[in-house]
């Protein structure tokens, strides 16, 4: 029986050390920024004066922004990964799923947010208890649904690609030792596909942190509130108050998930004989 090319000790060691290489510069930059803010070094910057005038609402909108982005990606992973696992072995189902999600991905974000207002408003009025759950034509509901829809394609496509990339000899060996199909899925296929799946989640998390800014236009809150207030008032510093934390949040999420992906690659290498 042919075997897959083994991962060398050097490759495994690199996969384990790589997160440690990226973490110190990021931590140092964050610490330096926090120190400068705490000591008042940047207090004369106009954007910080904008922050001082809106500090009571900034924390709330920052939390709302993070919740919108994280919750939509978590929901997409919970739905998209099982959907990809089920659809992948059936070519018509796999093709139909990916085609449908590709169509959703091509809809402009503003158009999708707008298209959701009417049906969600109807649900909020027609279904008892829906309005109490926050389902309405404007607010967090259309923002959450739109972000969830945009997150599905990268998650599903990454899961399918990761499972397709599992070496056939590894699957054959697992079958040869008597593993059931369920055991092969959870003990071989998904662990080896995990780095690719996490790469898809990384892409979509960074994407949704940026897209969540649009939620400010439909009453969903988040840092987009400051961005669009600044645009309407021609106040560049207010725009930056929403834009800079969004960029920082996306960068931090990317660095953190890069470290997790590198660790998962080390674990996947250990599973390949």
Description of the molecule:
- The chain is mostly helical.
- It has a single domain (46-271), classed as MetI-like fold (Orthogonal Bundle).
- The protein is built from ten helices and no strands.
- The protein has helices spanning 9-39, 46-53, 55-87, 91-106, 109-126, 140-164, 168-176, 181-211, 224-233, 236-271.
- It is globular.
Mean pLDDT: 80
CATH architecture: Orthogonal Bundle
The computed structural class is mainly alpha
| CATH third-level topology | MetI-like fold
Q: What string gives the helices and strands in order?
A: HHHHHHHHHH
| Global morphology | globular
The number of E-state strands comes to 0
Fourth CATH level, the homologous superfamily? MetI-like
The biggest beta sheet is recorded as: none
The first-to-last residue Cα distance is: 12 Å
Supply the number of helical segments: 10
Weakly predicted, low-confidence segments? 1-20, 32-37, 39-44
Share of helical residues = over 70%
The oligomerization state is single chain
Any idea how many domains? 1
Content of β-strand = under 5%
Q: What is the CATH class?
A: Mainly Alpha
The gyration radius over C-alpha positions equals 22 Å
